[in-house]
Specification:
about 325 residues, mainly alpha, three-stranded antiparallel beta sheet, two-stranded antiparallel sheet, 5 strands, about 70% helix, globular
Length: about 325
């Protein structure tokens, strides 16, 4: 009888699975903290963001060398700033260099949009492509590097009637507003591009008049993929309102990295040099935005999210 009672008291089924999962999670957390993996992942995320600027420098040299264009003197500033942000050698140095990179990303985006606006005014056609919007998302990703360096505010909380200093990290209103702005910039990629690219791909399937369908783009063109656009658009909806922000950020980062290696593998392309340069730019922008999403998952999305609203209503 005593043996029966002991066996009956043991957890079975779902309860046992939950206990095992909790135990494995605790072990993983101990290993994560032991090897300080948070710091290492943050370094990887910053390198991913800076890969965009490394590519800008490499492309400038490539165009100068092969097409006899002016030498890219901005590389003298761009490369050291990218390296210092990647290494995060000092808080003030990293912040200053991140501002330089953000300024360059803004100038790059502004130049393209001004050019397209002029074309719209002259020809009556406004064309905004995927790469243009991705560069806006890059601006949001670089902004997160700046925000990450801000010190968290500390607040005092009353515990059992006594005033006790508690090292509880709280995101300020100004920092939360910046997080919202950068999140919205990054959302343009998933919402606008997702919808427009899905629509464009449906319209790009045409009939050859003999009962066969064909695509307007060449085989091997990275633009011709539907799975990533549908996934990014679907995850972009909860991301923009800040619902399950950390989980959604990680999922979006995973999809962007997967898309980069599957659709924008520029090193394996058999198309012309111009397409290879274009595909490489898509690749590094995907990696850069994914790095920004990884940082967002670590920093937190701030006060202006659905998650925070739901927490207050509980």
């Amino acid at each position: 009888n005593s043996k029966k009672k002991i066996n009956m008291a043991e957890p079975t089924g779902i309860a046992k699975l939950q206990m095992n999962a909790t135990e494995q999670y605790v072990k993983a957390k101990v290993l994560w903290d032991k090897y300080n993996l948070t710091a290492k992942v943050n370094v990887i995320a910053r390198v991913m963001i800076c890969s965009y600027f490394f590519n800008v420098a490499a492309t400038g040299v490539q165009i100068w060398w092969f097409y006899h264009q002016p030498f890219p003197y901005m590389n003298i500033i761009l490369l050291p700033a990218s390296i210092l942000v990647s290494l995060d050698v000092h808080i003030h140095v990293t912040t200053a260099c991140a501002f330089i990179l953000a300024g360059m990303a803004f100038i790059d985006s502004a130049y393209i949009f001004v050019h397209q606006f002029q074309y719209w005014m002259n020809h009556g056609v406004l064309y905004i492509n995927e790469l243009m919007v991705k560069k806006l998302s890059m601006l949001g990703g670089v902004g997160l590097v700046v925000v990450q360096r801000w010190k968290q505010e500390k607040r005092r909380s009353a515990v059992a009637g006594l005033l006790v200093t508690k090292a509880e990290e709280v995101m300020s209103d100004s920092k939360s507003l910046l997080m919202l702005a950068f999140r919205l910039l990054m959302s343009t990629l998933f919402l606008y591009v997702g919808w427009s690219e899905i629509k464009r791909q449906w319209e790009s399937v045409v009939s050859d008049g003999q009962g066969h369908t064909m695509r307007k783009r060449a085989a091997g063109d990275g633009h011709d993929n539907m799975w990533s656009k549908i996934t990014e658009f679907s995850l972009g909806l909860p991301f923009i309102v800040g619902f399950k922000a950390k989980e959604t950020s990680r999922l979006l980062a995973f999809v962007l990295i997967l898309e980069a290696f599957v659709s924008w593998a520029w090193w394996a392309s058999s198309l012309n040099v111009g397409y290879v340069i274009h595909a490489r730019e898509h690749f590094v922008v995907n990696m850069g935005v994914a790095g920004g999403l990884i940082l967002l998952a670590f920093i937190g999305a701030g006060k202006y999210t659905m998650d925070n609203y739901l927490k207050k209503t509980e």
